[in-house]
Amino acid sequence: MNKVKLTKRVVDGLMGRDKTYAVRDAELAGFSVRVYSGGRRTFFYRYRVGGGRGAPIREPKIGDFGPLSVDQARSIAKDWAAEVRRGGDPAATRNAEREAPTMAALFDRYLTDYALKRKKASSLRNDRRMIEKELKPAFGRMRVKDVTRQQIRAYHASLEDKPFEANRRLALLSKTFSYAGDELEWVSRGDHPVKGVMRFKEEGRRRYLSEDEIMRLGVALKKAEEGQLERAISLYAVAMLRLVLLTGARHSEILTLRWDEVNLTRGCLELEDSKTGRKEIYLSSAARAVLASLPRQSHNPYVIVGAKPNSHLVNIKDPWATIRRDAGLEDVRIHDLRHNFASLGARAGMSLPLIGKLLGHKSVQTTARYAHLSDDPLHAAAGSIGTDIEEALRGGDVGKR
Predict the structure, then answer these.
(1) Which CATH code fits 211-377?
(2) I need a labelling partner for 383 at 20 to 30 A (CA). Which of 164, 274, 355, 377 fits?
(3) Residue 146 in this model has a pLDDT that exceeds 70
């Protein structure tokens, strides 16, 4: 192996031969350039791991001449030499860097090893959609260890115009990084780049129906049952909507309800599996009447029967669109019917824990969104008393209103 101080002029003048050959640098021990038969020139650095004549030899590639200048290659070689003197192994470090898991790999592991085994089918679908369509394109190529809090914060800030979606993505990123730390040990346990990133304030969209709107909805449901709307609607679709209104259940809980979960004797639905696990939904006499009126189909376990044999109804959006259009409630979602059930309870003066129990909330904070509605009877009472006092102050007769 020839030995000469490597410069741009020297390396430029090296020509390819029949066989590969190398030229060592006379200034920096271990630094060399290898010339291949086709003329390609590549820089290497040779060293012993741990020092001593018996130590294993490494000679990792630094890079090709052209994309990398001689000075740049020499600088890298010097850095590696310093690492070797400190007892390091640059080749092992480089391999570890190259093999460091990417965010795409983390997302895949999270879905297959965590979400698939521990989440409900609907939650798994949502996670997979968000990962494949949003998070992988944004972070997939990055190495897990390289993702910074500043990058997460900037990504979240870029979604300021859709705060709800931004917060859902941030929550999923947080869950994914927690999994990486707790179970894979790819990041520090208990600390990851999503921690400390502030969520956007979400202005909850809750639409409550007035008494007049509930009456209009009742008329539209009756017309649907009698086939008087613009399109035919299954009696099971109408029953499903009535049950959501009358119970405050999630519409998915009613759609997938089985007859073996209906206990009319106890007056409740005994759900084996809901969003919050095992759950009981209490039935009013009106809700029991809806269930009692529904014809059962032999060999079909579901209450809300679908078009396919032995299946439950799947498409409720189209029937609901027709019904709410007839009722003049086009801004009302099916989920608003659940909110409406809770709002009526709050306005009637029921306690938040009681409303939460009826809705199947696990957290008091979840039910607290209806707290302001419970003030309505108090406002009415205060208004009535205030009017009496005002009348008395004017010298009038209190109570003659």
Answers:
(1) 1.10.443.10
(2) 355
(3) yes
Rounded Cα gap, residues 43 and 23, in angstroms: 10
Tell me what pLDDT residue 149 has. Answer: 94
- Chain-wide mean pLDDT for the chain? 83
Whether residue 185 is predicted with pLDDT greater than 60 in this model: the reply is yes
* Residue 320: per-residue pLDDT: 92
- The sign of the dihedral angle between the CA atoms of 126, 132, 137, 138 is positive
Residue length of the chain: 401
Give the model's pLDDT for residue 121. Answer: 80
Cα 302 → chain centroid: 30
pLDDT given at position 154: 95
Determine the Cα–Cα distance for residues 368 and 384; give it in Å rounded to an integer: 27
Burial of 390 per CB tally in 10 Å (0-12, 13-18, 19+): exposed
Instruction: Please report, for the chain, the start and end positions of each structural domain, with discontinuous segments joined by +.
Output: 2-99, 103-184, 211-377
Q: Tokens at residue 390, please?
A: 């005002």
Confidence check: pLDDT of 401 > 80: no
Residues 6+ apart with CB under 8 A from 191: 181
Number of neighbours of residue 255 by Cβ within 10 angstroms: 22
- Give residue 189's Cα distance to chain centre: 21
Q: CB of 291 within 8 A of CB of 283?
A: yes
C-alpha angle 343-348-353 in degrees, rounded to nearest 5: 70
CA 70, CA 64: separation in Å to the nearest integer? 10
User: CA 359, CA 108: separation in Å to the nearest integer?
Assistant: 34
CATH architecture designation of domain 2-99: 2-Layer Sandwich (3.30)
Q: Contact 23/14 with Cβ under 8 angstroms?
A: yes
Q: Tokens representing 193?
A: 């780049």
